[in-house]
Write a structure and sequence with these properties.
Layout: E1 6-10, H1 17-25, E2 29-44, H2 49-52, E3 55-62, E4 65-72, E5 80-83, H3 98-107, E6 113-128, E7 134-147, E8 152-155, E9 159-164, H4 169-182, E10 186-187, H5 193-200, H6 221-244, H7 249-268, H8 275-310, H9 314-317, H10 321-342, H11 345-359, H12 375-395, H13 403-422, H14 429-469, H15 474-496, H16 498-506, H17 508-518
Antiparallel strand pairs: 1-9, 1-10, 2-3, 2-6, 3-4, 4-5, 6-7, 7-8, 7-9
Helix pairs in contact: 6-7, 6-11, 7-8, 8-10, 12-13, 12-17, 13-14, 14-15, 14-16, 14-17
Length: 527
Amino acid sequence: MRPETSCQFSMPEPLAITDLIARLRTFLTLRDAARQTVRRIYYDSFDWRLYGSGFVLAVESMGAKKCLALSPLQDPDPCSAMEVTAVPRFARDFPQGDLRRQMEKMLHSRALLPRVRVQGVRYGLEVLNRREKTVLHLVLEAMSVVDPGKETLKPLERGLRVVSVRGFRKRFAEVSALLQGILTLRPAEAHVLPQALKVLGHDPLASARRLNLCLDPAMRADQATKLILHRLFETMKINEAGVRNDLDSEFLHDFRVAVRRTRSALGQIKQVFPRRTVDRFAPRFAWLGAITTPPRDLDVYLLQFDELKASLPECVQKDLEPLYVFLEKRAEKAHRQLASQLDSSAYRKLMRNWQAFLEMPVPQRSRLADAMRPIRDIAGRRIFKLYRKALLQGRAITPETPAQHLHELRKTCKKLRYLMEFFESLYSPSRTGELLRGLKDLQDNLGAFQDTQVQMESLQQFGREMLQDGSVPSETLLAMGVLVDHLYERQQSVRSRFAEYFKGFAAKEMQASYQSLLGRAGAAPAC
């Protein structure tokens, strides 16, 4: 039964728990309930999706017993709890029920990872009335956070939680006021996790996925471009271990996005670095994009498998299961091969040389046309040039245009979006947000078209390989054929809506918005 009311306090630093208990006995009748050694591990995704959604997931060990509890960040009482022998890795690994639905909503495809460990001692006390009936529970904790780098303990503020018993709300209010008045206890947060993060120097809401750049419009273009590229390099390094160990599919996704953005910056922000520098690094990042493509494509298949399966008639859905087994084996092999490539001398040399280039100061003087110009001038010119290119490509597309032309437009739109994200801080957030929404709608349409094209081609190739293996049931090949037909119908439906999305992207009002925004790059950062 959930308590009607509870509140959390932190204790004065000089006061030991045993001394606090002694002082409490001078004005409260107490009964010792328990003294326990507590070990608690807080779990979250790599990008702190639970914490960002306002929740805390903790696995607490007391002896051999382990309890997993999901609680709101502002409430110590769990909304869901269960005993576990092992912590589920993905949302799909939780038992069917409310907790699993909550985890699916917040985690999506991300894995749960141990993020923060705390340990210490918990004392339980009962406050009694004159009839020796329990009217309140007091829970005192002296906890320390484990510094993962040094495996040392850093003490946290000791806490005291007051928990009411139904029917004694008045006594709860009296004791809470007494604790604050006589013992000068301070109200504290419901969980020690925020305090532990602060002690460790972690900011869980600083997303590694967003660039979070704040560029000075007057900054030299070569210096600003290096700042952008350095942030992307940090994103690659942050996600590298997760890619190497295949912790979840999002590590590889974020790694690849950083690689694509790097290639786009090198190719689109022109005349700021020497040609020999661009020619030196661009092919290496193209290689890095190429070796990460097969495992990512297979990840996407596995993530979308249930959706693809559900699109088939129910009578043939089960026939598709051998394809899932085939994809799993292929994905495991592809990830092993990628990990081997990330351990190669070629990759280590690329990362070492790239870091050295990024950390090298820009020359005091440069002969390159745009290197020393203000970044606001370069940004507006490059963005508008790509926007005009997308308009020309899109206007040339008709219902009979080959699929490759839509793919080329998609690539141009990606480059345009990356540039707008690089230079977002130079402009009004509300205005760039409007332009990005229109661009994203068109990108989503083009992306859905391209994805179905790749899926159809891949399924046909998978079918040939499975047939060569000789172990695939004929029913599976038939089900895959039905799936290809279904994907073709979906692709045609997506293509039929292209004109609608492009019309919004190419509207006179949208063109005017691009023109007016890019002609007024701010005089000061908008961040």
